[in-house]
User: What shape does this take?
Amino acid sequence: MRRPCVAGNWKMHKTVEESLALVKELVPKLADYSGVESVICPPFTALAKVAEELEGTDISLGAQNLYWEDRGAYTGEISPGMVAELAEHVIIGHSERRAYFQDTDSAVNKKIKAALKVGLKPILCLGETLEENEAGQTGPVVKRQLATALEGLDEKQLGDLMIAYEPVWAIGTGKAATPEGANQVIKTHIREELARLAAPEIAQRMRVLYGGSVKPNNAEDFFQQPDIDGALVGGASLQAEAFSAITKAAAA
Assistant: This one.
């Protein structure tokens, strides 16, 4: 059995003070759902204080990005080692990073390798745009992103990885993919490609989350699908009631 995971991507929201207030509200609400791995990913500025607040809880901490170099003249960037001092997970390849900050498939691969080198657990994001979806290119796009991202990784490294299928057209739009449609993409384009790239047992063991307008009123429908192991949640992760409701649905 794959342990479900619900990860919250706070994006560019919450000051340090606001982050601590949300965490203090979340901790007791998530305490009853130990069967689900809960991950929260606040902005870099809040990581240190949130890490202190999460000590002694079952909630994991993640960062939203990193740069692949260990150190150097890279103004404004955060190294893998800096992230690893505070966090356990790191989101890599989110569509907003790809679209706004030119994160290529090759850059995503470099970031994954750098994260794994320092013991971080990447959450690899994959997904097609609306134009690609309407052109029937979902499969080729997702397979290309997956193959390039995982190039050069061995079986042990793959064991520390999670994947989040996030169709770009469903992120922040309120328009989620259908549960059946998302499950079909994960089954036929992600798990089957993983089996081809690595091994069938790895494909069945790896957790694959769905992301894109996941809310309390639709989360259960996604989690009932056999190939969906949880969610990468955006807007709803900024509200303790909503995030805990989604986690409750995953626990069920």
